[in-house]
Amino acid sequence: MKRVLASALAMLIVAMTVGGCGHNPQAGDWIALIDGNNGMDNWSVAGSTANWRAEGGAIQADKSTGGKGASVLVSNRSFKDLALYVEFWAADETNSGVYLRAPNPKMVNTASGAYEVQIWDRNPNPAYSTGSLVNVASVSPIYKAGGRWNTFEVYAKGTEITVKMNGVVTVSTQTAKTHEGRIGLQFNGGPIKFRKLLVKEL
Questions:
Q1: Model pTM?
Q2: 30-201: what fold?
């Protein structure tokens, strides 16, 4: 009897392990735009300049070096319907974000039509703090990213956009804007690091 139970338990563990591998974002048709120190050649800079660099296993910035406003790393490729997996580190005071469907690669912001998945724990408007879609979908409760590594999983298909932070859905909404555009990574004060960014076209 003990032997039968042990065999059943072992089979259950194997099944759970294999099932878990099915959710590995690095499997299948995922494109790695950032993988540790690798990936700077997949991006250009829009807006002001900052000390974007590959260092310590991540693409990161922590200092503005010229101009006013945000500095944004802009993907060389455009995407419309996509799944996005991001690993990021932010300080408590960091103001950053991940842009989707930015139609103008030279001016990446929400005013130009991009969506922004917010990274800003101290936003004066808490409804649009970390995990929100700026000016589109607010968050409640308030989520915090500062001082540790976090994950975003974003699903954008047609009018539907869903954001998960550390495995928890923060926003899920329908929106009218379905245009194609670039991915952007914002530096607007405070250190920000991206050690993984994977994208899959849907």
A1: 0.86
A2: Jelly Rolls (2.60.120)
